[in-house]
Amino acid sequence: MDPRLCNGEYFHLILFSSFVILQLIMILIFFQTVEEEVYEAHKNELEPTLAKRAEHYFTENRRVAKGLEAWKSGNSQDFGKLISASGLSSIYNYECGSEPLIQLNEILQRAPGVFGARFSGAGFRGCCLALVDADRAEEAASYVRSEYFELQPELASQLNADSAVLICKPGDCARVI
After folding, report:
1. Superfamily of domain 48-165
2. What are the φ and ψ backbone dihedral angles of 8, each rounded to 5 degrees?
């Protein structure tokens, strides 16, 4: 058992986490009621960390709108660039992500046939996803396996090599893989 759980530190950790969650909820509610023009006019007045979070929120909204158009028109290149920009904003503006997932994301960005990539699951214990040219999916998967297993041998040794990289295809509905 983690010794921090036995000495009262756990209570403080839970209390602090609850406070942070409450602040994030309040910030999201606030951002939803602020017009982008008002944000742009006053963003330099925000505390630096809050300014970065706000930048992520407003630029993510723009990326979603642009992404919808790129998807509708079948423009995989533009859609992929928006996925990657979203991921970078999550790392630098929202400040989430762990070193192993950020490294995996960087590998995916370099992989052959990848239009765009980002991590999912808040970037701490999640996964990475990529939009890949279907004709190059196996090549990209092989590249990712090779590069990640070399960069993170300890973590990679805990993975089943056959399922560490999954190639998924669009389907008609959600299903269990």
Report:
1. GHMP kinase, C-terminal domain (3.30.70.890)
2. 90, -15
